Amino acid sequence: MCGKMIWGYRLIFLPAFVLAFPYYLRRMLRRGGYGQDMQHRWGCMPAVPPKGPRKRVWAHAVSVGELNAIRPLLEAMKAEMDVEIVLSTTTSTGYALAQSKMKELCLAISYFPIDFVLFSRRAWKQYDPDMVVLMEAELWPEHLHQAKRRGVPVYMINARLSDKSYRRYAKFGAISRRLLNKPDLILPSSEHDLERFAALGINRKKLSCTGNLKCDSPLPELPEAEKSQLRKELFGKSAKEALILMGSSTWPGEEVFLADLRQKAEADGMDIRLLLVPRHAERREELKTYLQRRNEAFQFRTEKPATVSEPLIYVADTTGELSRLTSIADVVFIGKSLPPNKGGQTPIEAVGMGIPSVMGPEMSNFKQITQEMLLSKAALQAKTQGEAELLLFKLLKDKTLRKKLGDAGKEWHERQRGAIGRTLENIRRHLNRL
To answer: Which is nearest to 109 in space by CA: 137, 90, 135?
Structure first.
C-alpha cells in the first residue's frame, strides 16, 4: 500500500512541478540569491568522502532561525556521539548563514533537493546518511520514502504544528497519518504540539516533548561598551540618550505602522530612534521608496559609505545580525503579527534577552510559546493595531515597566532551557534500540 501511495505521489508531483515551476522561478528571481549552487536542487550535492567508521547525519533546517536553533544540537551530537554531519537548508539566506557560520561543523552544506524521485534519489546516493534529522515540520514524502527503503531512521525534532498546518493535516485524515507516522521519532517543542500530533493519529510511542530548541540557542551578551559603540554606529552620537524602538523581522505594513508611531512619539516629546529589521532583506527597494516619501532621515545598513550620519530610522537590510542588533533595543515589536500578516515571527530571542516586547494578534506560529510568555508576564500582546500602539507608547514612557517586563522575560527563558539535552537523549535511546 505504501509503495502505491508513493508512486501516486510521484505521478501527481511531476505535472504539478512543471506547471508550478514558472511561478517559483519568478519568485526566486524576485527575492534573489538563488542562483548560487542551484545544482543542489536537482540532487547534485557537494562531494563528500566515502563513509568511515563514524555515523553520518543528514540534518535539514529551512532557514536562518531554524539553523541557529539546530546548531547547538549538531555541535552536541558531533561531540558526544562522534558523528559527521551533512547539512541542507531551503532558503538563500539560510544557505549564506550556514556557509559563513557552520562550515567547520559540517562535512558538506547544500540546498535541499526538490522532493522528486530523480533528484532525491541522487542526493541520497551522494550523501548516504545513517540517520536523518528534520527541524520542526519539514516532512517531504520522497525524502521520507528514500529513508524508509534504506532503513535509515528519521528524527523530527523541535516539531510543531501551526493552526494552519494542523487544520490542513486534519482535513486529509488517512493520508496525513501515513505521512506523519513515517518519522521514527517525533519530538514536539511543547505539550500543546504533542497533543496535536496525537490527535492526528500519531503513535504516542513515537512522541516525546523535549521543549523548544530555540530556547537553548545561545543569546548574545554584548558588553555595555560594545552596545554603546553599536548604537553610535547605527544612529550617531546624538542617539546616546535616545530610546531605540525595534521592528523585529517585520513584514509589509508593519514598517509603516512603526514609522508613524515613532513620529507620534517624537511629537509627544520623546527622543525615539527606529531600528527596522525586515524579515526579507530583498524588500530594501520597496522600503526605500516608502521612506523617501517621509520627511525623516533614514539609513540602510548596506549603503556604504553612509549617506546620513544621524538617522531617525535605520534599516538593517542584512542577514544574520538580528540577535546582535536586538541587544541594543529598548523596546521590540515582533514582526508578522499585525493583519493582514499571519503567523508571527519568533519572540524567543528578544524576550529571552530581557528586551520588553510587544506582539500583535497574529501569532499562530508561536501560539503555545506566546501563551506561556503572557502567563509569565514576560511579554505583551495586543488584540488590534491600535492597542499595539498604546502598549508600545506605554513601554517607551515607563522605564520601570520596561525593567519589570524584561526581568520576567529572562526568568521565563531560563525555565525553558534543557531542550538540547532532552532531544539528544531521545535520539541516543532510540538508536540503542536498533
So the answer is: 90
Torsion angle, alpha carbons of 63, 382, 167, 158, to 10:
40
* DSSP-based helix, strand, coil % in the chain, nearest 5: 50, 15, 35
Whether residue 16 is predicted with pLDDT greater than 80 in this model: the reply is: no
pLDDT at 282: 87
d(CA 274, CA 245): 5
SS (H, E, C) 31-83: HCCCCCCHHHHHCCCCCCCCCCCCCEEEEECCCHHHHHHHHHHHHHHHHHHCC
What is the average pLDDT across 382-405? 98
Bridge partner list, 250: 278
* DSSP string over 341-374: --S----HHHHHTT--EEE-S--GGGHHHHHHHH
At residue 295, does pLDDT exceed 70? yes
Question: How high is the pLDDT of residue 1?
Answer: 45
- CATH numbers and ranges of domains, the chain: 40-216+418-433 (3.40.50.11720), 224-416 (3.40.50.2000)
Residue 345 Cα distances to 10, 247, 251, 337, angstroms: 33, 11, 10, 7
Measured in degrees and rounded to the nearest 5, phi and psi for residue 390 equal -65, -40
pLDDT in tens, 201-249: 999 999 999 999 989 988 888 999 999 999 999 999 888 889 999 999 9
pLDDT at 394: 97
- Do 356 and 428 meet the contact criterion of CB atoms below 8 Å apart? no
Determine the Cα–Cα distance for residues 349 and 357; give it in Å rounded to an integer: 10
Angle between helices 92-101 and 64-81 (to 10 degrees): 40
Cell digits of residue 356: 520588553
Query: What residue type is 339 in one-letter code?
Result: P
CA 79 to chain centre: 25
Residue 21 pLDDT more than 70?
no
Question: Confidence class of residue 306 from pLDDT cuts 50, 70 and 90?
Answer: confident
Distance (Å, whole) CA 428 – CA 422: 10
